[in-house]
Batch of 3 targets.
Target 1
Amino acid sequence: MKKKLTNPNQMKKVCAMLVSAFIFMMTCGAQTPWDGTIAGSYDGGDGTRENPYQIATAEQLALFAYDINNGVNSEAHFILTKDINLNGAGGQIWTAAGTVKVTWLNQINYVVEPAYPFMGVFDGDGHVISDMHVDNADVIGLFGCTYSAEVRNLIIENASVTQGASAGIVVGEAFNTDIEGCTVSGEVRAYGNKVGGIAGRYIADDNDNDTVSIRNCVNNAYVTGGVMFLGGIAGYTEMNDGVFVIEHCVNNGEVGDMWNTNAAGGIIGQGSFIIRHSDNYGKVSGETTAGGIVGQGGSFGLIEYCFNHPTGEVTGGSSAGGIIGTPIFTTIRMSGNMATVTGDASYDMILVGGIAGSDGSISNCFNTGNLVGIMDVLDPLTAQMGGITGSPTEGFVYNVYNAGQIIRPTNPDLTNYVYGHIIPAFFNEKDIRNCYYYGNEDIPAYVYNFGSSSYTYLPESSAISEGASATSWVLDEAQYGTTDLLEALNAGAMGECVWVEDVEGINGGFPLPQPRPYDAVAEIVSDPVQVDVYPNPGNNAFNIRTALTDLHVELYDMTGRLVSRQEITDIVTTINAEFMPSGIYVWKVYSGVSTGSTTLVESGKWVKK
């Protein structure tokens, strides 16, 4: 005879135990830790876009990797239907999906070729892959190698990715791959060449100049190791015959190892890229060069509407910038740094800038972060610090301001140094103008001009004083007929952006750049989408497609100089740009050629790589 429970407290305890057991079984049922086995089939589907293979267990995810690594279903469509626990804490090591052939040229350089890459579509459908541990392979991540693939809507939590020549939590080597809506956390601690929170190396080499991208992704992982290139989103990027764009991405994780990383960036370590509307909140450090958004540029770079926030402190061994350490053919527009930037000499010299550590083409940008120089080495050579860039630029600097404090090195052995509110020195043939600065009263307003071997003031520039309110600022010398900083910035923006007051107090009350409304850029005749310019970015030519007639197009460089004027005589007109230098151009299409009276139809930007 069974004994009945009559004590109410006993009954409550039993009920509580049953509820807890039920919740435990439900939770474990959804994320049963992996035991290393491989399933014999998927949970459903036939691999088409309309009916993708369904992955509901870790065993089925292992089947997916096994198939891809053996050239099976490599172009199929897959979808996660449940959360998955890969049980890295229990000793299970994940084998990345997609393999490569790696040929090492020496201890540092190597050539990677896809062997059995993933070439299909993987949709996480918002589900979580947790506790993934990947170790001891040349190319590692959830995916080892992808080619012309899509990976989207995926969350990877508590990942541990170690070793690897190319390592990322999502993918080690990505060729022509679109990655969207992915969020990762954990740690990437690799000792290879290219390491990133999302992707280790990302290559755009599509012969059709197609655009591939990483969009709407977030890295919360700690990214470090003894590597060449380290980035919160991607370690190293290349644009060959294709175009690579990072948009609306965020890095929250700490990036870098001060004495073991060549180039470190909050978004990208080094490479060629277009980065738009992305933010860094994590600390960044690199032995040679470091930047809040990018460590070092490559053959082409464009950064716009990117911000390094106060928590994104940057430390570089020889070159440190709030946005980019060493630009190299990089243009930075409508971006800003709010974090402390430190140059901590490891090569007897430092170059420190609020936007760029050295060089750069910079417009409509700001710095409000402090700049710090440390030179504790025995024989310091050079210290160069500027509120916007830390060296004479090969590009241009205009419509910018610096409100950060410049804290110079105190080493008594330092005899070669130069500091500037905006730039420490310049060449008089360069376009340096409309620069504004606040504070640093002990630094002279003039800079050394190499073109005339003398000191001079920056043209059309002025110091800033506090205004009547916390968000108003007054120029000591009027520009564009006004002493109001906000008005002057908007007058000098050249249509790139709109400067607005810092009403939310996120930038110390100083103005912020925002995208310009489309209808404020040009007078629209009728249909707002009636002129198409492509490819953009392009190389030696671009096309204008329109059904309108009686038109001509004018092309201006970023100094406002007219570089080309041509009538539009067909539905598609090709504009020759072969002899134009790389950079950003403004195109304007006018109607009324036959009558001599012109009306602006549309305008926009075109980027030559």
Target 2
Amino acid sequence: MSETTLPDDVTGGAKAERQAQPQATAARAQELKTFTVLQRTTRDYLWPNWRLVVTSLVTSAVVASSTGVLPLLIQRVFDDVLPKKNLEMLVLVAIATIVASTFKGVASYGSNLTKNIIGQNIISAIQTRMFARIVKADLAWISGTHSGRFISSFMTDTGRVRDAVTMSVIDFVQNLLTVIALMGAMFFMNWKLAILACSVIPFAILYMRKLGKKTRKAGRKSLEGTGDLSALISEALGGIRVVKAYGQEDREIGRVAKAVANVLHHMRRGFRAKAAASPLTESLSGVGIAGVIYFGGLSVIQGSLTSGELFAFVSALMLAYQPLKAVANTQTIMQEGVAAAARVFPILDIEPQITAAADAAPLKLTDGAIHFDNVSFAYSDGTPALKGVTIDIPRGHTVALVGPSGGGKSTILNLVPRFYDPLSGSVSIDGQDIRKVTLASLRAASSLVTQDPFLFDDTVRANIAYGRPDASEEEIVAAARNAAAHDFIMSLSDGYDTQVGEAGFRLSGGQRQRIAIARAMLKNSPILLLDEATSALDTASELQVQTALAALMKGRTTLVIAHRLSTIKHANNIYVIDGGRVLEQGTHAELVARGGLYAELSRSQFLQDEGELDSPTPAPQPAIARA
């Protein structure tokens, strides 16, 4: 016989979590300066790789010096070798050119190799730290951002920060050293022409700074758009059955296409800003080269400059063109990195608010009794969720929380493992305020089974042993037997080695629930938290899960958010929660006889299926409507 469910609660305090947006850190992130990004990435990520950085800088210096030697060798050929027909010097110059080119090639290989290794080390370090921060952050903060945007930052933004370091620091140094070496050669050959060649550089710097601002803005918008796109794709795939059931494929395609077009729009703006750097550097370089050719040519005609000196000078200028262009483009690349850092650094900086006190001691379990003492809780915007709630759960007792949707039941349950902390009052276990014990010991003391249990894309065995990875095969099988899961597990293609698929999609709802119960049994915690553990199941699955739950609850202190009569009527005590307050408490029979809200909910939700309650006075219609 099926049982209808009581109204659902806001699972996991979702409202509180959604409203806990990390707006302050996001606002602070947008104020990041280029120097701040460089300083932090150098300190946190370049410095740990200092040996590789030194190697890269040394090889960059070899590349630069080898490049700077080439124009001087060219000058020697035209001024000394050819006019004097000095064959011996010609051979030496040729050998010197081969040596210089070989040094440059080997050093370039070493520089590129170390640069790529440094870049990968940086992105690995950022991703590892970012994931650690996300996993250890408060649930309220995590729920404030769509998981797809976290993935976007994890995969895309970190790459931009890496590029900002490797291309805008390491490459910048190599290109700058090359330019300096070639400039040195030019000043050595003719300081007047060198000044003329360098006269265009200040104009290029000013223009590149202007382009850098546009690139940063476009980069920030494109990264935000990429985050939105990741969120849409993640959401659509997660709800693909609903999408197909309601025939909304085209709608989702349209939403994603719009997000893709938005990313493309901002990326094009960034591309235009970066592309605009090339015409400028081309034009300014042309002006510089033309000036050198003209005035250098006049000097050759007038006899104050040799043809070899002019040719060598122009060669040095042409060799300096590509690294000079790269140096000029550094600003635009750096600004993309700054835009990415504005999204990455707030995640790296997040500190959980729910932490153990400095003097916290491990929880000392004796009875596993739980006591809520005048507990109040409010959402981040100040809206009250709980108001002076006092609840006692003695050792080994089962206490059920019932009431209309949004009344605060899940918030009460989530206070036990300190997913959030009360605004006032206290929660204690065996007389110990849970804020004064270590989080590890607190969470080890309880097991949680939810309405929609989450399974990892791993084997059945790994999912059961998730809370105790060192459990033996015998212990895993025993837990599965106690959860009424062993028989169906053995009927699977690979038994306990069967892959359950993403979120356990290869299993039925009842099977997933029984594996979750087996996981809780294997953890063997004295406190059990059940959050609507059977409300989404069909009758057959519910009977199997109820049998498993009965075995799991035996001898354990249990707090259950109840929607099934079979669970409620056997609880030692029932608390009726509405509007964040305890309205009634007592056993099933006592509350039905009292004729209050519980009796109203019982009649409206249970009597149509059970027919076993003695009906007190008919329930007022407004109260039923409220429920």
Target 3
Amino acid sequence: MVTIEQRAKLESIIVNQWITPVFQPIISLKDGNVLGFEALSRVSEPGLFDNIEEMFQCAETSGCIWMLEQVCRRAILRKIYEQMDTLNQYGAKIFINVSPKILHDEKFREGFTREYTKRYGIDTERIVFEITERERVEDEKSFQQAIEHYKMQHYQIAIDDVGAGYAGLNRICSLTPGYIKLDTELVRDVYKNPIKYAMIKGMVEFSHSSGTLLIAEGIETQKELELLIDLGVQYGQGYYLAKPQKQLHFDNQKAVAQILEKNTYNHMHNHFGVKKYYIKNLVRTGLTVAPHVMVESVLSYMKQNNEVVGICVLDQEQVTGVLTREKLFQKLSGQYGFSLYRKKNIGDLADKNFLMVDGRSSISSVAKIAMEREMDALYDFIVVKEEDKYIGIVTIQDLLKKAMEIDVDLAKCANPLTGLPGNIVIDQEVKESVESGKKCTIYYFDLDNFKAFNDVYGFEKGDEVIRILADVLKNNAKENDFVGHIGGDDFVMICEGFQPFAFSEKIRTEFEGRAHLLYKEEDRVRRYIQSCNRHGVTELFPLVSVTIVSASNEQKAFGNYEEVVSMLAGYKKSAKVEKRQLATG
């Protein structure tokens, strides 16, 4: 029931256009870049509606939701127009909330024609309609037709509040949105709730299979952020990342650093940092055709090129369907197949339900998803995209072959103490870095006074020192860097580009700060322990430290693998001698 006072407030807002838009960034949970900004409406005059949802409910009940949404939309478009340069700098999209009840209204359509949005300098490709799941749709058929209309105008669609609404997966399946927004209540304390965890995990698998991207709403803690990254959710928004603000702006470097650090750790831990484990490294070009190409032309090409496994129908860099060689030949076989289909457009025959994955997905995760498909699609090739653009295909044969190779590599190479790759992979990575000529720095790490620590504190504590160094190296490695464990207390790290001296000092400081906490307080205070040296003579040993040496091709190209290994060994020996001389005065 709307009171007279509420109705009067609402009319004042609409007549005077007392609406101010604010924008909340939507951030990639892979690299911290801005995907877009969700436009939210706030009442600009005090003393009216403090609760925005109450204002919209009042407008709905009063029958003036259209007028209110029109005021909100105009305010949003004007504000975007004023900040268009900033929007372009981010390369960002604008997410606009739309009630499903007005989406098929002719007035709304007129307000979102291409001509109308061009007045504000906004391409339709930059606008994403957020359709809330919280409201019931009375005429589902008309609603779906309206969605298809906007898709034809190159608007994108996001289903909002998933996990708290009416239609759920049925609506998602029928609308095939570009984005799914996980409701705040589903995200809240997800690390405490196994049911929420399982639901989001299932949505991530659905996302990979359907090519739909997930956005987690309402991220308010670091724990929520890190678990969502672990689960593979692609994007997020919430107060922990950034609050809504009047300007198109994002500058939470702390959160970005946490996102990068968590992804780096996961990447190193799960895939050893070896780039060949990305699915994009198995991609073959594949045959692409426009939707209007006739079937008989594709058939003719395939008959002349036996190596072509199928085609991808590509419309403005977006894959709209696929057709394998086998399925095309099946459709055209039989008494009437060829005559029935040969003059049709290939886009009409192509399968619209296909597996598309991001190029940065791991080979093992894609293999799992591919093997869970229906039997009739089990051996279909996989479409691979990067930054929402098609880059090629991967066949099941190539996928399974590489997955088996990886399993063998992991079994042979993983160091049981740290989980890092051992000598076989280290040799491969060093050789590749040397032979490729790419700009890089190769580090060698070796612990000092480690034997004495082991003798006094025991092997269990010694293992903990090794794990601390491994953890510090992984945490300081960037996404494309490599960390390997030679064995014992020796490690290798390969970094892209050239690192400043401060990088080594940061690793040294972090390691020693954590490792020294394993000593008894009296040993930490006096800065040494007493133990027998290698000759059985009692000696005083400083606290454990790390020797760090490096070689780079900044000034001079690497000669060959043996030369680099010999160079690092010489540097280490000299550094050890210098440390002993300094210790003895």
